[in-house]
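User: I want to check something. If I give you two sequences, will you return the structure for each one separately, not as a complex?

Assistant: Yes, each is folded on its own. Here is the first sequence with its structure:
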Amino acid sequence: MSKENFYDLGDYDAIQRHIKIEREKARKLRKSSWWEAHIQKGLCYFCQQLVGADNLTMDHLVPLARGGKSTKGNIVPACQACNKKKQLETPVETLLDQIKIQSDQ
């Protein structure tokens, strides 16, 4: 089953400026003791698999391209597979997609 998403992201230049600013904030957070404590368990926020701290990426629950911010409340550790799968979706949208797929079966 192919899945196609469309997101109207608005003014491209404004979004790119926002992303640049927020990525810089994320780089600073990545070096913080707060982030080190979050990845120490090595647990992916989404799939709850133990993948090790070195295999975790920083994921924004609300993606930067959709107006998300690099704040402690919007950043979680994610394995590479979950981060890639999530793309521009929020966790709620991902859950709704899963429910829809299950109900179609």
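And separately, the second sequence with its own structure:
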Amino acid sequence: MRKTQPKKIPLAPDPKFNDKLVTRFVNNLMWEGKKSGAYNIFYDSLEKVAKITGEDGYEVWKKALTNITPGVEVRSRRVGGATFQIPSEVRPDRKISLSIKWMVRYSRERNGRSMADKLANEIVAASKGEGAAFKKKEDTHRMAEANKAFAHFRI
């Protein structure tokens, strides 16, 4: 294990919305180092979201991300030969990371013509409290609730 944690490299904000969260999302969306392609997919999907909902696509996307952000998760811990699922709070940085990863993952698994279509549909679903990414958050919370009895094993 290393002695000091590596420094966090600050992200550059995206050109359109001047938001570092968008850059972070696009970095997760990116495939094979094609960042400009990822930006195009993201901006196209926000335009499609705006067309579908009639609201600002950027605001709908932010709402969708907050809807699928988990508060608690379960972590495995070995105690006396048995492995327990122990519920724990999620660090703020990890919350954002998980929600972004879930949205990108379940967008890719959706049916649709292009990635922009899939992402737009997942954003709309997540903003309404539906979709696979929202279900993943609900399942995570349900699992933590079910294993609340083991919370005393927390470190």
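Because they were folded independently, the notes below concern the second chain alone. The chain has a mean pLDDT of 92. The chain is about 55% helix and 10% strand.
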